[in-house]
Here is the input.
Amino acid sequence: MKSRNASLILCCWVGLSRIVAQDAQLTQFYATPTYLNPAFSGTGSQTRFGLVARDQWPAIPGAFVTANFAIDHNLSNLSSGLGLMVHHDRAGSGALRYSSVTGQYAYEIQLKRKVFLRPALQVGWVQHAVDYSRLVFGDQLARGGTVGTHENMEGTSVGYADMGTGLLFFTPKMWLGAALHHLNRPNQSLLQNEAMVPMKFSMQGGYRIHVRTPVIQKNPQSFVFAFNYKSQQKYDQLDLGVYFEREPFFMGLWYRGLPLMKHYAPGYGNNDALAVLVGTIIEDLRIGYSYDITVSRLAGQSAGAHELTIGYEIASRQKKRAASKRRIVPCAKF
Here is the structure.
């Protein structure tokens, strides 16, 4: 009975997703920052790779599984950055899938010494697909058979272009960025109807504080305070977090939600999760793990969310030295 109820809920969710689709969220979004904002493209020393794998609410049948791979390159001679991102998201035991490939470009403007502004654009192609045979419909439950509504349904996939833009301002100690995704509001309907992807707005920023010690250390210590706000149609969310960094180890704590209000339901709290993350850097390799502790009404039923990130940066000593002298992006690495 529980599995049947879950299937019915999933069917309702699939129906609603044709009307209001929300983008996948990541806890360690700075592990692949170009997913957050295309203006981060090329903010590394030279060439940077990032991989994120996320399993959200594994205890709930048909939960969300997300993977993101990104590569970006700093063209210092042209004051530019290029990025390429591949994203895949699936739900409902693989019944509903989103896959995308996105190209990104950012231009770096030096306002004054070590103060920069980076406008950016991105263009991608999205493939939205559904496997109706993996879903259970109401008439199947009523008849007790396997033949159901989906036998007469057409439209298993649709492809569309997707556009976005971003802006990033940063100094050696702070950063502030904003991004708009789905500027063209593409139609993602699988049934030849009209189901526009709502535009998403996000704003992110933070501040880095270096911890002074009596003895000069090879690997300095610092705290990084950061936030990420995002809004898509009537839904909005705020992430607040703090990192402690002392190479080769990193740790952080994040809160996700709007504790005092919801955009579409004033006076009703929106508490989602607390996230704990740890990470390490081994030369140019970064490895991070985070676990989301659900604090919403799903607490005790969702089993939280697991997220693993791997990052790698390729840069010569000359490039690293030149980048550190010219400009430093102070945001966290996870």
